[in-house]
Structure formats: structure tokens, C-alpha cells
Amino acid sequence: MGNSNDLEMLKKTKFQRFGINFVAFFKSIPQKFKNLGLAIWGGLKKLFWGFVNFFKTIGLTFWHGDWKTKVSYFVMGFGSIARGQWLRGILFLLFEVVFFVYMICFGGSYFSQLYILGTKEQIIDEATGAIVQQGDNSFNILLYGVLSLFFIVAFIYTWYLNIKQNKIAEEILKDEKRLDTAKDDLRAIVDKNFHKTLLALPTLGIVIFTILPIFFMVLVAFTDYDKQHALLFGWVGLDNFKQIFTWTAGGKSFSATFGQILLWTLVWAFFATFTNYFLGMLVAMLINKKGIKLKKLWRTVLVFSIAIPQFISILYVSQMFATDGLINGLFDGIARLFGNNNFQPIDFWGDPWLARITVIIINIWIGVPYLMLVVTGILMNIPADLYESANIDGASAWQQYSKITLPYMLFVTGPYLLTSFTGNMNNFNVIYLLTGGGPINTEMYGNAGSTDLLITWLYSLAVNEADYKFAAVIGIMVFIVVAVVSLVVYNIIPSTKNEEEFQ
Amino acid sequence: MATEKHSMSMSKKRTIVNTLSYIVLGLISIIWILPFIFLVLQSFRCENTGIVNYVFPKSFGFDNYIYLFSAETNFLQWYFNTFIIALFVCVLQTIMQFMMSYTLSRFRFKLRKPLMNVMLVLGMFPGFLTMIVLYQVLKTIGLTGDNAVPGLILVSVASSGMGYYVSKGFLDTLPKSLDEAATVDGATKFQIFYKVILPLCKPILIYTVLTSFMGPWGDYIFASVIAIGSETGLNVAAGLYTWLSAAMISDNFTHFCAGGVIVAIPVMVLFMFLQKYYVEGVTGGAVKG
């Protein structure tokens, strides 16, 4: 959209504008792809020149360097130690020693089998139950192979740093300046390099406990790792992904189940987000209304329900809705009051649609207090004079809400709505503790249930069915869906675009 | 006359609206409070340990609480496990998160944007995906099953740097001029961190400690996997969940209620005391996204 029709845009209603933005987003997709292509091309070019530079530095430094530098190519950190920067030098050397010890004693053999993940089947003598032949453990091969791969990349990078160190040190000495001593290095830890000090531990944790496992699981999606292949599994290429798109009618097809669960996940996320959002806003406005007394009491009542650990309230409420639970008891009592002594209890968790609706309603009970808190803080920030002038102009309550409150709220909480949508897509606790994914649908693959979200299905596939390959595929699909939703919404919502509108 | 009549009807209208508002608020309060009152009432029920469809127990008593503290169950063990986990996690996670958010907020370095983007992308993967691998790894070093407590602490703390958003939002509001003034006075980066910024961060630190202390009390997904197959390694969430399985619920429903009350009390007291900080953190976090 050009700037020329800004005025025309302002004449339109919010919904029309939203529609135009929506269409414009899809119209701009080809352009976006072009930009993406250009960005990738640019990235590739940069990568290529990076590689050229990498080898140039290595070559030239070796060629021009003195003997200390040359030895450093084989004994990392030698140059630094020889020039008096012993702290850095020792660290480099230590890293090299650890790396080679690890690779020779442990990682190397795993790494070399990474391409096939083991060949020897474990053979058990059926009569005695004793293991006749110790088979290969594909899980360990894949895990330590990946670990070795990470280690190798880290080693190459450190080796390169070590060479660059030598180059820099030589240049500094040539200019007859002073090199940083070990004391300087130590001081830099709390001063010049303090950000690296602070980041070291958190990023190490993320690399080992998030990046490595996710990388591993992405690889598992390309193998046949499941209950039948618990010890020895191999690469199967894209077979698991093909399963998502090969539709087999009837039976327990993976594709049909996946489609159904994905649809419910999106429907659930939509309702869970927006029912909470609007009802939470309503409650907050009610409490903040002029003339309402005991504001603090009402708020505390709701906050009280946040204070109780969620699993207790969810599990308890789930039992309230059981066939012999309190809600049915209440209905029974009401029925008796009207002379019906033959009340049939409602099976809230037995019927697919009833279970889905109940889950959404209970989620309102769970989420509204939290939204109330969020909204209250923002409501107080809306400039009061906006309402005063609206009052003078004789605007009705509904007009004030739809013209002032709602646009302001949507603008400020746009990104929050997005994160809560994706958060609800992965809302394990509410679904799993309320229904466990049930009622189980016998038509579906892997004992999936009618209220299962992708994330709870992933959980039961992994924990109950040991179907790791499909668990990994679902994990990747969740990632793709979340990424696409985030990308689309982020491009449409006004908060990220017209930042000046309310300032 | 006419204006008086007008204002009369206005004030009448206002009273009606206000009365309606009070009725709605009263209803809301009842709906949100009632389940917890039921929970407490059922925890005192003695005549039957299963689910019933009435609220008021026919015989009141402390049987369920006595059961929890007896040697018949592992409830105290679960409670102790959860408390230890919560204690470690709230300290370590606060440190990790604060280090990450402080760096991303106060420093500008070459890898800052890439680092934030990588964490954003990683956050789009379901967190549980990593559990499948981490379980096997923890199993080989013996931190699963009965020894799940250190394993759970490790898993909860290690990647917690990724949850830096709320405290970074807070740190971004502290003016840059503070750092600059301190630099002019010759302070090192560490001194700025420790002496200038840290004292100002009390609200956000309390918020982080509070939320990360409350997290482990409600964590089912990780605990149920890491402590799989163990009776004594569970936390309260995974432990009490087993009591509601189809096979056990008729003997244990009121025990669950009593356990729920005992779990909720310390968390609730702490929360009510620190409510102010929680509300600040939640609203701040939502606005900044």
C-alpha cells in the first residue's frame, strides 16, 4: 500500500481496514517470496565470501607468520603462550586436548556410524533370554554422533580464533604496542567482555538442553525410531512426512488423524484466546467502572484463583463434571425439584462435542482472572480525557467501548494476543489434566482422542506409544504452524506497523 | 423542571446499572470461589473416599489429612521433592534469566540480534520435544525415576534463559543515562551491573522468583516423564494425578482434595503477599509483548 491512499484508509471502518490489510498481505506474498529469495541469495553470497575469507586468513597467516604462529596451527595456543599471553594460550591448548581425547576415546566411533546408525541387530536367545549378540544402539549413535558434530564445529571455530589471535598479536607487536596480559584478560571478564561472561552459562544451557535435543529430534523425524525399532533404527528419508499427505480412507490413518487434530487445535486456540480476551476485558471494565465500590475485593477474589496451583483447580473441576460429580448432582437436584426423579447424568467427558465445548467453557474459568489483571493495567493507561470528551459529545457506552476502548486495547495487546494464541495451541495442562485428550476416538491413529491437541497427542505418542518418529514429525509440524501463524499475524496487526497512532 | 426530571431519570438509570453490576460481580465471585470451597469441604469428608454428587460431607473429620501424613502414602515425599525443586529452581532460574535479560537489554554486541532470533525460533518448537531426548540422557546418568529431583531441577533451570522477555521489558524502561553516568565515573561493567542497576530491579526480581517458585508446584508434563515408573521420585502434581486414575479414584478422591489444600496453602500465602509484584510483572509483560 502506498502512502497516497492513507486518507481513504482513515475513512474506512476498522473491519474494512483489517480486511484490506488482510488482502494486502496475501497480495504481497509474491513480493515477500522475492525478497526472501534475494535475502537467501545475499546470505549465500555472504557465506561464500566468509568461506573465502576464512581460508585466505588461514593461508596468509601461515605464509607470513613467524614460527610461533606456525606451530599454533598444530598446537593450539602455542603462539599465545610464547608471547606471554599464557591464560588464553592454556585455554586454547586445554580445549584441543579435551577435543582430541573425546574424539579418539569416545566420539569418533559414533560419528563415523552416523550415516547408517548401526547395523548389528541385538540377538536374544529365546530359550534362556540371554543376549547372544550385543547389537548396535542407534539412539546412542545418533546422540553422540550429533554431539560430536557440534563439538567438531566448535573445534574448527576455536582453531580459527586461535589463528586469528596469532595474527592480531603479530600485528600489535609489529606496531610496537603492548599485548594484553593474563591480568588484562582477567579484568576484561568483568569489564570489556562482561556481556560474554553473563551470557556464557545461559547460552551453554540452551545449546545443550534445547538446541542439541531439538536438532536430534528433527533428525529422528527422518528415521523409523518407534516401538518396533527401539534399539536399531535407520534413516528412512521423507517417508514419515509423506504419511501426513497420503490419505487412506478409513482405518487408523495417520494423515486423517493429523488433519483432524490440527483443525481442533486451531479451533481451540481461537476460542480459548478470544473468549478469555473479551470476557476478561468485560470483567475488568465492570470492576473499574465508576461508582462500583469494593474494587479491591472483586479483584482479590479473582486473583485468589490464580494463586492456587493450576493442576489442583483443573483436576478438581474435571472431577466436578464427571458423571457422578457435583454438576450432575446439581442437575439431578434441579430435576427432582421439578418432579423428575429419573434424571440421566450428562456424560460431559464421553461425548466428543460436549467434551470440546466443556473444555472451552472451563478454560474461561481458568483464564479470565489472568486476562482481567492484564487488561486492568492497560485500561488505566487510556487517557481519561478521551472518555470525557466522548461524554460531552453524548457518545453511548457502546460507542465509547467500540471507538475508544477496543481499538486501544487491540492496538496495545496485539502482540500479546498472538503469543497467547500460540500459547493456547500448546496448552498442554488444560487439555491433558481436564480430559487426558479423551474421549478416545477408535477411528484415529495411536489412540488419539477428540480433545487432543497436537501437543497432547505428541505427549501420548511419545510416552504411551513410544512412537518417537511420529512424535518428532508432529513436533516439527507444530513448529511450522506456529511459525506461519506468527508470521501472518505479525504482518497484519496494527501494533507493529502504525506505532505513532496512539502516541 | 424538565432538567430536574432528566437528572432524576439519569440517577435512577445509574442505580439500576450499578445494582446489575453488583449482581453480576457477585455471581462472578461465587463462580470463581465456589469450586475451592467445595474442594476444602470435600477434604473433610469421612464417610466415603470416592466422588459423590453432594457438597456437604455427612461426617466431618480430619481422616484425609491424617492419611496424608501417615506412612501409607508417599505424599510427604512428593511434597518434600516439590519444595526442594521449587527452592532450587526459583534461585537458579532467576539468576539465569536475569543474566540473559540484562545482557540483551543493556549491551549492544554483534551477535545480539541473531541470538534473540535463534531463541524466538527455538521457542516455536514445543518444549516437550526435547524431553524425549533429555529423558534418555538423564537415564544414562541415573537422574530419572527415584532420583528424578536433581534431574528435574537441571531440566527446568538449564534453558531458562529463553524466558527473558518480561524482565528485559522491565530493564528496557531503566534509562540508559544511568549506565553512561556510571561509566563516566569510571565504573566497570560489573560495577554498573551490581551497584547501579541491580538495586533498581527489586520488583522484577521478586516477580521472577515468585513465578519460578510457583512453576514446579504445577509442573505435570516434565515430572511425569522424568519420574516415570517411580513412586517416590514424583512431585505433587504427578503424584496427585495418579490418585485420580480410574483404578484409584474411588479410594483416593478425598485424599486428593486434602492434598490439594495442603499444596495450595503455602503457594497461596506467598502469592497473596507478593501480589503487587506479580500484577506489575504481568501487565508490563503483556504490554511489551
Question: Can you offer a commentary on this structure?
Answer:
- The complex is a heterodimer of chains A (503) and B (289).
- Chain A is mostly helical and 503 residues long.
- Residues 497-503 of chain A have low confidence and may be disordered.
- In chain A, 70% of the residues lie in helices and 1% in strands.
- Chain A contains 20 helices and two strands.
- A two-stranded antiparallel ribbon of chain A has the order 1-2.
- In chain A, a hairpin with a 6-residue loop joins strand 1 (123-124) and strand 2.
- Chain A is globular.
- In chain A, helix 12 (295-307) crosses helix 15 and helix 19 runs antiparallel to helix 20.
- Chain B is an all-alpha fold and 289 residues long.
- Chain B has helices spanning 2-43, 63-68, 75-106, 112-122, 129-140, 148-158, 165-172, 176-184, 189-197, 202-218, 221-226, 236-243, 249-273, 275-288.
- The longest helix of chain B has 42 residues, at 2-43.
- The radius of gyration of chain B is 25 Å and the shape is flat.
- The termini of chain B are far apart.
- At the A-B interface, helix 9, helix 11, helix 12, helix 13 and helix 14 of A face helix 1, helix 3, helix 4, helix 5 and helix 6 of B.
Which features would summarize this protein structure in a list?
heterodimer; A: 503 residues; MetI-like fold; 2 domains; two-stranded antiparallel ribbon; 20 helices; globular; disordered C terminus; B: 289 residues; 73% helix
The termini of chain B sit apart by 54 Å
Query: What percent of residues of chain B adopt helix (DSSP H or I)?
Result: over 70%
Question: Domains counted in the coordinates of chain A: how many?
Answer: 2
Kindly state the percentage of residues in helix of chain A.
Answer: over 70%
CATH class of the largest domain in chain B: Mainly Alpha
Average pLDDT of chain B, rounded to a whole number, is 88
- Biggest sheet of chain A, open or closed, and with what strands and sense? 2 strands, antiparallel
The termini of chain A sit apart by: 23 Å
Q: Rg of chain A from C-alpha positions? A: 31 Å
Radius of gyration of chain B: 25 Å
Unreliable sequence segments of chain A: 497-503
Q: What is the number of strand segments of chain A?
A: 2
Order of helices and strands of chain A: HHHHHHEEHHHHHHHHHHHHHH
Q: Overall 3D geometry of chain B?
A: flat
CATH topology of the largest domain in chain B: MetI-like fold
Taken as a percent bin, the fraction of beta residues of chain A is under 5%
So what's the oligomer here?
Answer: heterodimer
Q: Reading side by side through the largest sheet of chain A, how are the strands ordered?
A: 1-2
